[in-house]
Write a structure and sequence with these properties.
The complex is a heterodimer of chains A (240) and B (256).
Chain A (H helix, E strand, L loop, with lengths): L7 E2 L2 E2 L11 E5 L7 E7 L2 E12 L12 E8 L14 H14 L11 E11 L4 H15 L9 E8 L2 E4 L3 H6 L2 E8 L4 E11 L1 H30 L6
Parallel strand pairs in A: 6-7
Antiparallel strand pairs in A: 1-2, 3-4, 4-5, 5-7, 8-9, 8-10, 10-11
Helix pairs in contact in A: 1-2, 2-4
Chain B lengths: L8 H12 L15 E5 L7 E7 L2 E12 L10 E8 L14 H16 L9 E3 L3 E13 L4 H14 L21 E8 L2 E4 L3 H6 L2 E7 L5 E7 L6 H20 L3
Parallel strand pairs in B: 4-6
Antiparallel strand pairs in B: 1-2, 2-3, 3-6, 5-6, 7-8, 7-9, 9-10
Helix pairs in contact in B: 2-3
The chains are: A alpha+beta (240), B alpha+beta (256).
Chain lengths: 240, 256
């Protein structure tokens, strides 16, 4: 694919969005029968499943922590999720994403309630279109709540990019590919504490601040959607 | 899995208590790096190399240039590959075997600083479009892990690149190695709500979280990575950026 001449035309992005607009977002909770908790997220063309198992006994035993549970995260992409088939199994990228995902989620989970146990979070990207790690974190946070695991708060995640010199929320694939900067971020929404921050590309100090503003705004919308999903699933309806 | 092993609660409380008073275990100021030294070209079998010491932490970086096939989606670009080894001789908690998540993260953070700043003009490293290009291999060798491997590794990598000997190969036609920027990573740790640069091992082992910011000469950011299970507020991130920018200039001066 050739780089389009412009990625922003008359203030609109190629897919018609304003710079501060998210892609179409759908979140469902409790979509898998066997998992203790699960969630499905669609963000633009991203389709991501997350499942939570546990707290359950930690094997191998020498990985047990005497005073707390271990949170284990695995981010994985299906071989058919991208244009060119991805070789199955972990690569360096997915190992790193698994690590930062765990570090994004761990601050909100009351691990100290389950010594010697493990809580497994499995994230599977079924279809990828830029921003899979943030979609995965959003799904995983809802899945943790769906599993009934005590949490201090949600974790909401979104990416901010820079394309044609403009800071944009939730870059789509073409913007990710041709843009200059990508900054995925995750936060604890009520206290506005950042639990994941990565960035590559180019930001001046001023642009970094702008990008943070936009990320906060985006995470608020994601949080609302996560909350709504859980409220709808667990609300006691009239007549029940 | 764990880079630090088990930490006693006495040590944890001691360090946290010092930080509360604005002090550090090794008597440094919060915005003070340990002694940094850069020795260039210690390894003659590599095209470029550098040994960086940050306090007792030692990292050796070696650069090798080799012929390679370009990636099919980038036929007119050289290849950059960064690999990091947390050698078992560098720490009782490092084990032999394939790179674990810590080694992978380290390599990828160093890689992003160099790649995203376009420090190397990879387009100049094409020998024959689509067929033959130069691959720049940067191998990070952690020799002694006393904290802050990221900053030491990033500095060693750029120091090694700055001192590349041109390959004696007729395919090499450039008069110098096409290095156009000097990205420098600075890691800021958060302990007990306070930010400090260049965490030593004891500090790393009790820190809530860290944020690494790689900046170039004009102070703009080319890569960031948060690590650890804690969190940062917006104000803390802005403060960390100011620290990173100021300290990067100090470290860059060590490159000569």
């Amino acid at each position: 694919m050739e780089k389009p001449e412009k990625l922003i035309v008359d203030g609109k992005r190629l897919d018609g969005r304003a710079p501060d607009e998210l892609r179409q977002l759908k979140i469902e909770a409790g979509v898998l029968e066997r998992a203790d908790g699960s969630a499905y997220v669609e963000l633009g063309a991203n389709k991501v499943l997350a499942a939570v198992y546990g707290p359950r006994e930690m094997h191998p035993r020498h990985h047990q922590q005497p005073d707390m549970a271990v949170l284990r995260c695995r981010y994985n992409m299906a071989p058919f999720s991208v244009d060119e088939r991805k070789r199955p199994g972990p690569d360096r990228r997915s190992v790193e994403i698994s690590k930062v995902t765990r570090e994004a989620l761990e601050p909100v989970v009351f691990l100290e309630l389950y010594p010697r146990s493990v809580i497994d979070v499995f994230i599977e990207v079924l279809q990828a279109e830029a921003g899979t790690r943030t979609a995965g974190i959003n799904a995983a946070a809802v899945a943790l709540a769906d599993a009934g695991i005590p949490m201090r708060d949600m974790v909401s995640s979104v990416a901010v990019g820079k394309v044609d010199g403009t800071i944009v929320l939730d870059p789509a694939k073409d913007e990710d590919q041709w843009g200059t900067t990508d900054m995925p971020i995750a936060m604890i929404p009520r206290k506005k504490l950042i639990t994941l921050l990565q960035m590559d590309g180019h930001f001046t100090g001023e642009e970094f601040k702008q990008a943070l503003d936009l990320a906060f705004k985006g995470c608020e919308q994601i949080y609302e959607a996560q909350r709504r999903t859980l409220m709808e699933k667990y609300a006691i309806k009239q007549g029940e | 899995m764990d880079m630090y092993g088990i930490v006693s609660s006495v040590k944890r409380d001691y360090i946290a208590d010092l930080v509360r008073q604005g002090k550090r275990v090794d008597t440094r100021m919060l915005d003070q790096f340990r002694e940094v030294s850069v020795e260039v070209s210690p390894i003659k079998s590599a095209q470029g190399s550098a040994l960086v010491k940050v306090g007792k932490t030692q990292v050796l970086a070696g650069v090798k240039l080799e012929h390679a096939e370009p990636f099919s989606d980038r036929p007119d670009s050289g290849v950059l590959i960064v690999n990091a080894e947390l050698l078992p001789l560098a720490s009782p908690t490092f084990e032999p075997g394939r790179p674990d998540e810590n080694a992978i993260e380290l390599a990828r953070v160093v890689d992003r600083g160099i790649r995203e700043s376009e420090a190397i003009d990879l387009e100049k490293l094409v020998i024959k479009s689509g067929e033959d290009v130069w691959a720049v291999f940067i191998d990070i060798y952690a020799l002694d892990h006393d904290g802050n491997l990221i900053d030491a590794s990033a500095l060693a990598a750029i120091a090694a690149l700055l001192n590349v000997k041109l390959p004696e190969d007729e395919a090499w036609t450039l008069s110098e190695f096409p290095l156009q920027k000097k990205p420098v990573a600075v890691t800021v740790a958060k302990i007990n709500g306070k930010l400090m640069v260049d965490p030593c091992l004891d500090e790393e082992s009790v820190m809530d979280a860290r944020i690494t910011m790689a900046t170039i000469e004009d102070g703009s950011i080319c890569a960031m990575q948060k690590g650890g299970i804690g969190h940062f507020s917006r104000e803390e991130l802005e403060q960390a950026y100011e620290l990173a920018r100021a300290k990067a200039a100090e470290l860059r001066a060590k490159l000569g």
